[in-house]
Task: structure prediction
Amino acid sequence: MLFNKLREYKLSYEVYNFFQRKALMHNIPLFKKYGIKKKYYQSISSQDFVRLNGEKNKYDVVDSREFLSEHPKFKSLPQSYQESLLDWSRNGYAILEHFFSEEEITEFNDEIDRLIQSKKAKWQYGNKIMFAIHDSKTLKDAGDRGRLTSILGMLMDKKVNLFQSINFLDGSQQRTHSDSIHMTTFPLGNLIAVWVALEDIQPDSGPLHYYPGSHKLPYILNEDFGNLSSKLKLGDKDYNDYENKIQDVLESNNFQKKVFLPRKGDILIWHANLLHGGEIQTNPNASRKSMVFHYYSEDVICYHEITERPTLFL
Ligand SMILES: O=C(O)CCC(=O)C(=O)O
Result:
């Protein structure tokens, strides 16, 4: 209780961050580039960028259907991948079927079992294994596969770096959100995510859902749900208030929800601002083995809007 109270004060993590210079130094040249008067360990939020105009990503400006095929990587991809990727600008997601082979998926699942059995798996937020890539070369290599990062780099039109992984054995049942409230960048939009099906996904297991086209909505950041902080203290809203705001946004727009029911080895790539979440798991016995990778683009300020912390690259 007291610990949670302390966490509301920026100083609590600024002191910790002071000793994490190496993990935070990525922001230092970018603060300089954008004229942000901050130390590497200080809190940072969208409020620090209000007077700046961040460049938009290429395919948020021009249509991938017109220009993506000019990319040297594009022609080497299977026809079905090309079709899905061409709609990146319009949809904010792409589905690549059979991306990982049966053997690769078995290797990933065995590795996760091993992490769980050896108690190396870091369970957080209920049922999520966070950052398994820090404990497993196999899983890190899975997210770092050149044939994957080259596609992500093509969509972002810049190099991307794997930042985080999440492993699930069952559904997250997480309400609809955009990743940009958790992993935020300046300029906005420099995050990209991949969802990997580690088994055939059943409708009653709490599959991933997403709203095609919703990435074009304005980004919902702290100010948009009244969560402004003061010099010393974080805003007084909680994550539930953010989720309610997203629900309001969805209710006042007309996006059609889609539910992802992939086969083992299929992947879904999504845009930094695509609204998505986990369906309710209606079968309590169903598993939903899956893995998410989040990547930041190179040379952008990386932080966490909801907690106003700069991102630690550990
Ligand atoms: O897999 C899910 O149910 C949700 C995953 C998600 O929202 C995320 O990783 O950002």
